[in-house]
Amino acid sequence: MIHYHGTPVGGNRQDGARFLAGRHALVPFPRRDDMGIVAEVCQSFVFDNGAFTVWKQGGTLDVDGYLRWVDDWHRHPGFDWALIPDVIDGDEAANDRLLEEWPSHLPGVPVWHLHESIERLQRLAEEWRTVAFGSSGQWASPGTDSWWKRIGDAMNAICDDQGRPACRLHGLRMLDPAIFSRLPFASADSTNAAVNGGSVGRFGMYVPPTAGQRAEVIASRIESHNSAAVWQRETQLEMAV
């Protein structure tokens, strides 16, 4: 699987370049600080429209500005795809309209929010090459018992009898080995390394001296794990009990 690390990265620009070199990055539209470094040193990158930030902090997503940004960058050889604009707590009809408005020449990935219907997920999995899973509603916190139950229902609906999903799957804010190692994700992202590289407390007495080095340690630990090859129904259902 591909491990996309959210940017911007803390520390100075040299730390950021060293951390991102050879890695895969997610660049959010509201914080494009590291875009130049990402384009030069990352193996590949994806774009986040910033809907999560709007959901948490308020404001309005600049859809037209985001589209122009994606259009400017989608020919770069490292560009993988961009998340299609969505309203995290919106209804399915509103999010479907945003999908219909997405330009066909841009590589886009729709988001299925966990509070939306399983039927919408099945439809997206049939129509799109990749679908992103976004935690929302009563399942806004990845890794809880109820969250696993909901994920189990979703995976059962789009995986065949051998546990193979109908399309490629991406986990938003799910770059946690305890999560992605149990799911057949093609990719996942999080800002864990970028955010917690500044946290000295999580390392105990043997703490790396700089934020860049701490981020490197966190990312390397994450990247040592892979996603599951297939969805295993019985095993996964036991986790939610």
SSE layout:
Blueprint: E1 2-6, H1 13-20, E2 24-28, H2 35-41, E3 44-48, H3 51-57, H4 63-73, E4 79-83, H5 92-100, E5 108-109, E6 111-113, H6 118-127, E7 130-134, H7 145-158, E8 168-171, H8 177-180, E9 187-190, H9 192-196, H10 211-223, H11 233-239
Helix pairs in contact: 1-10, 6-7, 7-11
Task: Compute the separation of the termini in Å.
Answer: 27 Å
Structural class: alpha/beta
Assign a percent range to the helix content: 25-40%
Question: In the residues, how many domains can be counted?
Answer: 1
Tell how many strands the DSSP assignment holds. Answer: 9
CATH class: Alpha Beta
Please state the overall shape, judged from the principal axes of the Cα atoms: globular
Write down the CATH topology: TIM Barrel
- Main sheet properties: 9 strands, parallel
Oligomer: single chain
CATH architecture: Alpha-Beta Barrel
Unreliable stretches (pLDDT < 50, length at least 5) are none
Strands of the widest sheet, in order across it, are 5-4-3-2-1-9-8-7-6
